[in-house]
Amino acid sequence: MAEKLLSVVVSVYNEEAVLEQFFRETGPVLENLKWNYELLFVNDGSRDKSLEIVKGMAERDPHVKVVSFSRNFGHEAAMIAGIDHSSGDGIVCMDADLQHPPACLEEIIEKLDQGYEVINMVRTKNESAGWFKNLSSTAFYKVINMLSDVKFESNASDFFAISRRVAEVLKKNYREKVRFLRGYVQNVGFSRTTIPYEAGARAAGESKYSIRKLIRFSVNTIVCFSNLPLKLGIYAGAMAAFLGLVVMIYTLFTRGGAPSGYATIVVLICFMFAILFVMVGIIGEYIGILFTELKDRPVYLVEETKNINHDEARGSAS
Ligand code: UDP
Ligand code: MG
């Protein structure tokens, strides 16, 4: 039987400060694996020297492959592009900043060999993220698990491994434009397992996720994985109707006509309009995503590749 191939997909956005160190630390681990490997860097429109660095690596080492985008498309796009261009029997997605320890790869291979098809790496500790990021991440998972019928692992990260079969599913289906790969991976089913790991601090460079990006991302994820917010309008409507009925009955049976209540009226109007506008906003979020999906623009555009042979059909090459 031919030796199996592990594809390690690494998304790279302005990571010049850390790439050499990443390669130095990951290289020996990969060399010692039971499986053969390819190291696939997806350059997500970096504006620094990242592309030159990974291209240099690809020239020196045929294990290294590069897919480079025409501009920045985001981490989600980078990960799926890596999966699309990979040819391994198992695929691992990881970050370039060494927060995902390469030492875990050995354990991942073990699990893949045991026949697991989805391996979620679960953070036991996240040193680099401040209390705010940790708290908001916990809150986010609480909310999404409450709202969605698909369940999310609360400490899952963008560090995971999948089998070729799952990769093909992600390649063919789940081609949404507004994406949350981690969510798909956790919900495709197949035999799954988890491996705990400690996320260290970022080795160098700085985080590419701003708070604003994270909020946008959270809203999108909730909209994409749950229709429950849309139903809030029905509940709010029922409540307003009930309130109206009570007030109407009260007014009818109060002697001396309706009591004067300027403040009450103003407060009620503001309150009702607030609910109404929030509902309109929620519907707007759904329509926005609907429109994005409808336009069907590409998730990413590849400008150049290195060491990637598109004709090399899997299996026929070995
Ligand atoms: N990344 C990317 N495109 C982006 C932003 C980030 O490919 O637009 C990559 C980045 O190079 C890194 C990974 O995604 O390999 C995770 O980013 P980062 O470490 O900044 O996020 P954090 O760990 O702080 O959540
Ligand atoms: Mg990081």
The termini sit apart by 10 Å
Give the SSE string.
Answer: EHEHEHEHEHEHHEHHHE
Q: What percentage of amino acids are in beta strands? A: 15-25%
Main β sheet profile: 8 strands, mixed
Bound molecules: uridine-5'-diphosphate, magnesium ion
Q: Rg to the nearest angstrom?
A: 25 Å
Mean pLDDT: 88
Structural class by SSE content: alpha/beta
What is the helix tally?
10
Strand arrangement, major sheet: 7-5-6-4-1-2-3-8
Low-confidence region ranges: 312-318
Give the helix proportion (percent range): 40-55%
Shape descriptor: elongated
The tally of strands reads: 8
In summary, what is this structure?
This protein is an alpha/beta fold and 318 residues long. It has helices at residues 19-31, 50-60, 75-85, 105-113, 131-147, 164-172, 181-187, 211-225, 228-253, 262-295, and strands spanning 5-12, 36-43, 64-69, 90-95, 118-126, 156-163, 192-199, 302-306. Helix content is 48%, strand content 18%.
Q: Can you offer a commentary on this structure?
A:
Mean pLDDT is 88; it is low at 312-318. The chain is 48% helix and 18% strand. Helix 5 runs parallel beside helix 8 and helix 9 runs antiparallel to helix 10 (262-295). The longest helix has 34 residues, at 262-295. 28% of the residues are buried. It is built from ten helices and eight strands. Strand 2, helix 2 (50-60) and strand 3 form a beta-alpha-beta unit. The chain has an eight-stranded mixed beta sheet with strand order 7-5-6-4-1-2-3-8, with helices on both faces. It is α/β, with parallel strands linked by helices and 318 residues long. It binds uridine-5'-diphosphate (UDP) and magnesium ion.
